[in-house]
Amino acid sequence: MMDGIERISQENKCDQNKVGGILEQAELVARGVLESVQAIARTTTCKGVQIANLKKWAQERGHWITTDKLGTYEDRGSENEVYLSFDSNVVYKLNDFRYSDDNLCPFFERIEAHNLYFPDCAYTLIGFSENLNGVCCAVLQQPYIISNREANEYEIAEELEKLGFSSQMNGEYYTNGIHDIFDASPNNVLVGIDGNLYFIDTIIYRASVSNINTYRSLSPKYTM
Question: Most buried residue, 39, 83, 110, 188, by most Cβ within 10 Å?
Answer without folding.
Answer: 83
